[in-house]
Amino acid sequence: MAKKPKSDLQxxxxxxxxxxxxxxxxxxxxxxxxxxxxRPKGSPTVQELLTREAKRSVKIKTAEGxxxxxxxxxxxxxxxxxxxxxxxxxxxxxxxATPPNASEKGEVGSVTDxxxxxxxxxxxxxxMLARFEGFFSTGKPK
Length: 142
What we know:
Distance between the termini: 79 Å
Number of helices: 6
Oligomer: single chain
Radius of gyration: 30 Å
Shape: elongated
Structural class: mainly alpha
Order of helices and strands: HHEEHHHH
Strand order of the largest sheet: 1-2
């Protein structure tokens, strides 16, 4: 079978309508959105959904008994419990989320930026280990 010359494969004049070339009356006009109505007003964003869910209450078991707390607080408690059990990833999250001078003031800062675990410094790990020294009876992790 002989190959057709390129001139036979492509039409002599461009097609007005076809794949990637809709009819002119159906093309988007400059400055007009393809979704003019956009997201309906009142529909929540992902951030709003996460915040709403974090505020919902759950029941947790504590030393004092069953307690009702917001999900976010339960999550933070669990994170601290894991860190105290020796989970270094949990401890790293806590250390990175805590501002350097929080232990002096007795306060913990809010987390606004996502934590990049690849950028953990040796100083952050030293601070974490210094905090844990008082938690163990012998001063060394088990």
